[in-house]
Amino acid sequence: MSNTYGEWLKARREELGLTQQEVADRAYMTRSYISHIEAGRRIPSVEDARRLDKALGTGDVLVTFRPRADEGGLADYFEPVRALQQQATMIREFAISYVPGLLQTEAYARAILGSAFPPVGEEERDRRVVARVERSRLLDDPVTPVLWVLIDEAALRRVVGGPEVMAEQIDHLVRLTEAGRIRTHVMPLKSAYPLMDGTLTLMWFEDQPPCAYSEGHAFGRLHDAPAVVERLQAIYDLALGEALPQEDSLALMRAIAKDHLAHD
User: Fold this and answer.
1) Cα separation of 259 and 181, whole Å?
2) Among 45, 51, 85, 38, which Cα is nearest to 66's?
């Protein structure tokens, strides 16, 4: 992934003999936000880029050459999203086809990654499974990040890896929800509702603007533009209003897990 924008920002800052904190103070931002932009993990909003131009005396260079959040770049790679999840104080996930990666059991993850096309070798699949399971350790912290999950009933009924794998996966969701570590709402099968065209992850932070990550067939996109993020947050809220309450969601998940085992 090219990070010419962030590298140029860093070079200009160092040319002026400024620290990240000094630039952050001038631009009314946080040091960590400057660090994320320089490392290519964030794209500043137009207003943020304008303040950076003023802080560094670069005219309108950072505004003019700011990467567009809807043209790929960061979004074509999941690594920046993984890093952002590590920093988030709140995450809200939506999944229509499969259980989100942060909540996958090892067996479920292995089955999902085993269906990749073109196929990958066993060694590569093992590497990817380990990486995905490592991501779930984010939930070892009992408090942060706060995690809400909105999941379509179809994702729970679709048999991935066999009935036992599905029952284990659903039981994992139930345990985390009952323990209060996550909040889970199931979207019952119905004709249509917002968000049906893919998955969505919303993230909030202590010291930087919120962002969103959407994913469809063979592509992923990281959204930093405030107007886009706000629209996706609103769509998520609308869909959440159509979902089952948590207690009803738990009851349905338990019933679906039993159905999987009954048909084993």
Assistant:
1) 25
2) 45
Domain ranges of the chain: 4-64, 73-262
Torsion of the alpha carbons at 19, 33, 42 and 95, rounded to the nearest 10? 160
Digit-coded pLDDT (tens) for 133-171: 888 888 999 889 999 999 999 999 999 999 999 999 999
pLDDT at residue 71, as a whole number: 43
| Strand, coil or helix: 116 | coil
CATH level 3 topology of 73-262: Endonuclease; Chain A (3.30.870)
E-strand stretches of 31-179: 90-95, 146-152
4-64 classified as CATH 1.10.260.40: yes
Residues of the chain short of pLDDT 70, as ranges, are 1-3, 68-80, 217-218, 264
- Tally Cβ neighbours within 10 Å of residue 3: 18
Q: Do 76 and 130 contact (CB within 8 A), yes or no? A: no
